[in-house]
């Protein structure tokens, strides 16, 4: 992988790990500078009785697990399901990140993600980074369709790093998709498509060759 600086745009705290955690681990192992921007701490998504800052703490633990230092973590506080109301502010945040980081790869939700927050990040992300290579990651429970146009081959270490990061989200482990069997099965499925053991698949939104 030839990318020097990658920026992951996650609508909510754990979306990036689900969508491209293995690729994040591979980029880091190859020496890339990886930044993670979460646009919501998702307090509304917490179970009753859980501390309001739980997902922020869990995100920081997941980032530490992957090897992303705090200086490369960008956490914002837009309300869950309210993103369409804040398009301009979100776009402004993305333009600021573009100026500060200068990524040559942006990973964000696919253009067919039906969650209103995810779709807002996908659409505004394209506007902000349209001169940059942009890959859309899959969130299978949200995708109406998904075009598997790009594949990143993963080694076992990358899959394990993804799983370790996801397991840091203790408050979310009751979700039906937050389990090792699902994560590994999807990685095997995507790998099988290209004759590899494991992979993550992406929609190509923009491919820039410099």
Structural class: alpha/beta
Strand content: 15-25%
Order of helices and strands: EHEHEHEHEEHHE
Mean pLDDT: 96
CATH class value: Alpha Beta
The CATH architecture name reads 3-Layer(aba) Sandwich
Secondary structure tally, helices: 6
Strand order of the largest sheet: 3-2-1-4-5-7-6
Low-confidence stretches: none
What is the general shape?
globular
* Portion of residues within helices: 25-40%
Would you give an account of this structure?
The protein has 210 residues and is α/β, with parallel strands linked by helices. It has one domain (5-206): Rossmann fold. It has helices at residues 15-29, 54-66, 87-101, 116-128, 156-166, 180-193, and strands at residues 5-10, 33-38, 73-75, 105-109, 133-137, 150-154, 198-206. Helix 1 (15-29) links the parallel strand 1 (5-10) and strand 2. Helix 2 runs antiparallel to helix 5 (156-166). The mean pLDDT is 96.
Topology overview:
Blueprint: E1 5-10, H1 15-29, E2 33-38, H2 54-66, E3 73-75, H3 87-101, E4 105-109, H4 116-128, E5 133-137, E6 150-154, H5 156-166, H6 180-193, E7 198-206
Parallel strand pairs: 1-2, 1-4, 2-3, 4-5
Antiparallel strand pairs: 5-7, 6-7
